[in-house]
Amino acid sequence: MADTWLVVGLGNPGPDYARTRHNIGQMVLAELERRAGASPKRHGRAEALVAESRIIGGPKVVTAFPTTYMNRSGGPVAKLMDWFGVDADHVVVLHDELDLPLGSVRLKQGGGHGGHNGMRDIIAARGPEVLRVRLGIGRPPGRQDPADFVLKPFAKVEQDEVDLMVQLGADAVERIIAEGFLAAQQGIHAPS
C-alpha cells in the first residue's frame, strides 16, 4: 500500500523510562496518537504497540512503539514494514538526538546511525533509507556519561521546552505526510 505511512517512536519500555530523554520519540508518538484519537494495541506479530488512523483527508498512518529495548528496535520495525507493506520512504522514525540542542527538531533522510543504538539496529535490519525526526536533547553536562544522561528524566526547568518540542515533532510528522519530506524539511528548518 503505497499510501500507508509507518511512524515509529523510539524509546525503552516500562514506567521507569517513560519520561526519560531517550523516550522523547515515544512522547511525540503519543501526541500524534492523541491528535488522531488513536488507541494503540499490542500487535500480534511484532513486539510493538500499534494504532491505525488517518490524517484528515489523507493516507492511512500506522503509529508504533516497539516494546523491545531501544537497541532492539530493528526487528519490530522490519516486521511492521512487511505486515503493512510500507517502503522505507514511508517510514518516519522519531528519536532523541544528543548532537542537537534541547528543543531542536530536525528532519533527515538516510545516512548513518550517528551512535544512536536504536537507529543502528533499524539500519542493520532494513537499511538507512528511512525518514527521521531528530529531537534535540542536548549534550550531558560536564563529564557525565551520555549513556547515563539519556536515561535520566528531563529537569523541571526544561519541561516547557520539552512540551514545545513534542508539539513541533508531531507537527513535523504531519507535514512530512501532508506536504512531502523536502517541503516539510524546508519549513521546519527555516529560521523563525
TrEMBL record:
TM regions (residue ranges): none
Keyword vocabulary terms for this entry: Cytoplasm, Hydrolase, RNA-binding, tRNA-binding
Subcellular location: Cytoplasm
Amino-acid positions noted as binding tRNA in the UniProt annotation, renumbered to this chain: Y17, Y69, N71, N117
Catalytic reaction(s) noted: an N-acyl-L-alpha-aminoacyl-tRNA + H2O = an N-acyl-L-amino acid + a tRNA + H(+)
EC annotation from Swiss-Prot or TrEMBL: 3.1.1.29
First-tier enzyme category under EC: hydrolase
Residues annotated as site: Stabilizes the basic form of H active site to accept a proton: D96
Catalytic residues (positions): H22
Pfam family, one: Pept_tRNA_hydro
UniProt family annotation: Belongs to the PTH family.
PANTHER family reported in the protein's UniProt record: PEPTIDYL-TRNA HYDROLASE (PTHR17224)
The protein, known as: Peptidyl-tRNA hydrolase
Source organism per UniProt: Agrococcus terreus
